[in-house]
Amino acid sequence: MYAVVDLETTGGYALRNRVTEVAIYRFDGIRILDEFHSLVNPERPIPPFITQLTGINDEMVAAAPTFKEIAKTIDEFTRDHVFVAHNAGFDYSFLRREFKSLGTNFIRKKLCTVRLSRKIVPGLHSYSLGTLCATLGIPIENRHRAFGDARATVTLLQYLLNNDRVNHIEEALSRYSREGTLPPNLARKEFDLLPEEVGVYYFMDKKGKVIYVGKAKNIRRRVLTHFQQFGRSRRSMEFRNQIHGIAYELCGNELVAYLLESHEIKKNWPRFNRSQRFTRYCWGIYKYCDQNGYQRLIVSKSTKSNLPLISFKTFDQAWDFLRQQADRYSLCKRLCNIQTVSGSCLDYSAGNCHGACIREESASNYNQRVMDFQENIKYLDNSYLLLGKGRHYQETSLVLVENGKYKGFGFAEDNIQETELDGLIQNITSYADNQDVQRIIDSYLHQHPGTRRIWLNPQDSPISSRPIS
User: Using CA atoms, how far apart are residues 217 and 194, in angstroms rounded to an integer?
Assistant: First the structure.
């Protein structure tokens, strides 16, 4: 038994819009058994462009029932039926949202006639309801009204049932099928090919242009999470409908995935990526020496002529980081400009400051801890290879930093010999250095202090020891 549904709404996404009309046809695959249709008072104005599209205006819905008043009927009308709609994710997201606002879950097994049509009637340039109906000779009256579009969808469903030669519908209704979750224009086989491994994934539009790049520990699981979250905003609904293909690249470990994702976003400028396209690090931590010889730290705006020790996107990020590091390295809060009191800082009486603020601790002792802080957050002039898991068990990933600059990454066979550095470096593919990748590597090393590292210069060896955490 099928419940074929169509809705008209005040806008294109469920989170901030409401239903204005609902039509449901109970269908057994052969004939319509029952039907329900009602205008719905959305309890808010209907935008003019929606009225122009559907013909539904504020006057028409003024005396109509609210969704709360017809919710029980909709629940009973669709219960124990397969929920069918053209672009089912759209209609389903609105009903789930409306029922959720009433404190009720709305859960039905779904069929999308867009996805089914792509499989059963392949090769069309468009799978909109209007195009399909024109191509298949299905009459469609009262276009963009719920009762008209739902009635046409019933006939379309009947056609699909009669022409499903390889059981696409049965497969879609399988307990383990993801058909109801996938975007309408994405072939199921592309999702099925996704691995459960670390890497970078790409969403493409119908022309093959990359519209989103992401990285994941488990590519398949992360992509599915995207699909489950669609419908929460107008942008996410547009994103969902533009996905026609997926590609991926295995990376072996998170660091390489982060670095490749950053590169690919800057290379492709995907329209649905927001981070790292326009990354600006406007704030930084600077060091200067005061008249008494103490090295002092301060948060200030970054400038092209004076590079900071470390950069941040916001003042709050820089300020919070400096406070944390002051505690970690027992740095005086007054000499870090965190406290503006005169005399001793507030931590001195509590025993958390060694007295640099009142020159009780020598400048040389205090400055050593400032240097320890600085060496921990910067690459300085170090040159090294970072080693990690490869794309398969006989491979190792390599990330190259030379003189503090990121050079790129690559992969080598697992029997790494530190005496064969020239051979290892030949496996590196060059990538651009920038503040984003500097912070990616820095953050990764702080979170993974045990990362294996081959020092390219003897003076940088950990024997001389420079902690990285």
Answer: 12
Q: Which CATH number fits domain 2-172: 3.30.420.10, 3.90.180.10, 3.40.190.10, 3.40.50.12780?
A: 3.30.420.10
Distance from C-alpha of 39 to C-alpha of 410, rounded to nearest angstrom:
60
Torsion of CA 390, 391, 392, 394, to 10 degrees: -30
How many C-beta atoms surround the C-beta of residue 211 within 10 A? 20
**What's the token pair of residue 438?**
């500097």
Convert the pLDDT of each residue in 408-457 to its tens digit: 999 998 777 665 777 788 899 999 988 788 888 887 887 888 898 888 87
Please give the Cα distance from 100 to 301 (Å, whole number).
46
| Residue 310 reports pLDDT greater than 90 | no
Instruction: Say if residue 394's pLDDT is above 60.
Output: yes
> Considering only CA atoms, which of 13, 40, 38 is closest in space to residue 23?
38
- Is 468 or 463 the better-scoring residue by pLDDT? 463
Which residue in the block uniquely carries the two structure tokens 């590609």? 247
Give the H/E segment covering residue 232.
none
